[in-house]
Amino acid sequence: GAGVSQSPSNKVTEKGKDVELRCDPISGHTALYWYRQSLGQGLEFLIYFQGNSAPDKSGLPSDRFSAERTGGSVSTLTIQRTQQEDSAVYLCASSFTGTAGELFFGEGSRLTVL
Amino acid sequence: RKEVEQDPGPFNVPEGATVAFNCTYSNSASQSFFWYRQDCRKEPKLLMSVYSSGNEDGRFTAQLNRASQYISLLIRDSKLSDSATYLCVVRFPSGGYNKLIFGAGTRLAVHP
After folding, report:
1. CA dihedral sign, ordered A113, B4, B10, B13
2. Per-residue pLDDT tens for B74-110?
């Protein structure tokens, strides 16, 4: 389909390893968001990309987290030296504009850090 | 104080009941407001935007009170299929960006 695609859908890793999560937004959407959701909790904002502007990184919880968006399309969220508290579902969403558009979410990447 | 606060519930109601959720936000410069729905272990999906004059979509009515900084969602004639978590979402300017912040959600369980 033409929705937001995330991979992997599930990732189990050992504490201390690095992980990369990928998001392929809907074609033509200029805004891309990353959130994470721990079990039974709400969505925690991580980072926001809007067109070619510098991203809003204010939600990244530590310097172990980074994200990039290449060519204004695909985005990768990287978590270095994973910790158990990083276990969560990482959700990516895109919208046509960054100001008023509806967010379309992917199905998420479930990360488990052992 | 959290930027967006919701009563976590759960709200347990029988089919046909009317139920209302409230959400408060802290930033008076907030510009846009939404209700999203999230089914168990699924991604959130837009339920409806919230307009200043209030708006209705079938059994769902959303209201905005800027003076008191809260929004509400009213569901009439509840159906079993309404069981989900309802997320209040607020957009406000911050540091040159438009931040889109989700509340923690209110869980609704509709029973026969």
Report:
1. negative
2. 999 999 999 999 999 999 888 777 888 999 999 999 9
In contact, B34 and B89? CB cutoff 8 Å:
yes
Instruction: Assign residue A16 a region (left: φ > 0; alpha: ψ between -120 and 50; beta: otherwise).
Output: left
Tokens of B71: 């929004």
User: How far is Cα B7 from Cα B45, in angstroms, rounded to an integer?
Assistant: 20
The answer to whether residue B102 neighbours chain A at the CB level (below 8 Å) is yes
* Chain-chain contact of B97 with A42 (C-beta, under 8 angstroms): no
- Paired with B71 in beta bridges are B23, B64
CA atoms within 13 A on the CB side of B1: 7
d(CA A58, CA A40): 23
Separation between Cα atoms, residue A99 and residue A53, nearest integer Å: 14
Nearest to A41 among B31, B95, B104 (CB): B104
**Cβ of B97 and A102 within 8 Å?**
no
Question: Around Cβ B28, how many Cβ atoms within 10 Å?
Answer: 9
